[in-house]
Large ribosomal RNA subunit accumulation protein YceD (Ephemeroptericola cinctiostellae), 172 residues
Amino acid sequence: MTTENQAPMLRDVFALANNAVTLTGDLPIADLTRMRPELTQTTGALHYTISGHLNEKKYPLLHLQITGELSMVCQRCLEEVTQSIDIDNTLHLVANEADLDSEEDEINAILAGDESPEKIVGSTSFDLLNLLEDEVILSLPQAVTHDVCEKTLPTAAGEKPSPFAVLAKLKS
Ligand SMILES: [Zn+2]
């Protein structure tokens, strides 16, 4: 087993698995280009570990861990919110699209209670940065918000009486 410390880049992911290579390093937040519109700060970095290995069936696997914090916009109050990232996921590398599970296979696996890792198509020049960014995006909640917002927007319910309440008053 070897450990390398460097920025994620194009790698032969099958070789990482076959040789049990672990890559660790910092993922600069400024490199998360697809996420940039959602971020309020692009300084700093997330920390990642990518470990390749073969399982008992000799399937090539990539184990990904990503930790850190992102500064984003709260979807409820529009103030800045710190979203912590703590990803721990294992992916099964397959050679081509035909080896990916069909939707039917996936449903059957879920029905059978089979928790086998998600499959992705690997390659000899696989974009690890793109994969890490995919994992970060997939890990985010549908709407990033504070647990409890400090301020409420003026559009929040309660200020304006509903037209039905006004009508009821007129009638009485
Ligand atoms: Zn908020």
